[in-house]
Amino acid sequence: MSTSLPNEIEAHRQPDHEINPQFLERWSPRSFTNQEVSEEVLLSLFEAARWAPSGSNNQPWRFIIARTPEQLAKFHTFINPFNLVWCEKAPVLTLVISHTKSPRGTDNPSHAFDAGTAWGYLALEANNQGLITHAMGGFEREQAREALQIPADYELHAVIAIGYRGPADALPEKLQEREVPSGRLPINETIFAGEFGQNLSK
């Protein structure tokens, strides 16, 4: 890499090919401080998500944001205990959902794919803004749907914790050792040439 990476990142992540460092520097810590995220900074994350590509430009993603004590407490009721242990300090939680129907009322087969892309844009911009994000699938979906009054034609995907990073030793001991950037599979294990299972020729 032509750009030096923080030691913490370099110790755990080495790309096989040259890429922008932002893709390596973004990871998912669990230790948050309770420092408030200003509205200007917070909305910049959703502005980035707004510009994600989507099938037929349908933009099916929606984000339900919790940042007041009352809103956060409501989110806490449907987050699994394992996740609540660390995410309850996060000053912002958001639920990512997507509309399963197109504007014409037909099924939208790419709604989840598109929502995932929007979340990726949000996560990268959060890192650019000095924030951390951690998406979690461990929550009770039907309980969340009822608590947040989400219509039946929206699918619930993930709760995202957003905020500023705290020290690893603020976490329960069993989570402290996991507070490091995760690695990835070699690229040749995730791409194929022409058909499934065929390695790229060198």
Structure description:
- The chain has 202 residues and is an alpha+beta fold.
- The chain has a domain at 37-172: NADH Oxidase, CATH 3.40.109.
- Helix 3 packs across helix 6 (111-128).
- It is 32% helix and 14% strand.
- The relative contact order is 0.20.
- The longest helix has 18 residues, at 111-128.
- The two termini are 22 Å apart.
Main β-sheet description = 4 strands, antiparallel
Query: By helix and strand content, what is the structural category?
Result: alpha+beta
- Strand ordering within the main sheet: 1-2-4-3
The CATH homologous superfamily name of the domain at 37-172 equals NADH Oxidase
Report the strand count: 4
Tally of contiguous helical segments:
8
How widely separated are the two ends?
A: 22 Å
CATH architecture of the domain at 37-172: 3-Layer(aba) Sandwich
The first-level CATH class name of the domain at 37-172: Alpha Beta
Mean pLDDT: 95
Helix content: 25-40%
- What is the CA-atom radius of gyration, in angstroms? 18 Å
CATH fold naming of the domain at 37-172: NADH Oxidase
Shape: globular
DSSP strand content: 5-15%
Order of helices and strands: HHHEHHEHEHEH
| Model regions low in confidence, pLDDT < 50 over at least 5 residues | none
Features:
single chain; 202 residues; alpha+beta; NADH Oxidase; four-stranded antiparallel sheet; 4 strands
Per-chain topology:
Elements: H1 7-10, H2 22-25, H3 39-50, E1 61-66, H4 69-76, H5 81-87, E2 92-99, H6 111-128, E3 132-136, H7 141-148, E4 154-163, H8 173-176
Antiparallel strand pairs: 1-2, 2-4, 3-4
Helix pairs in contact: 3-6
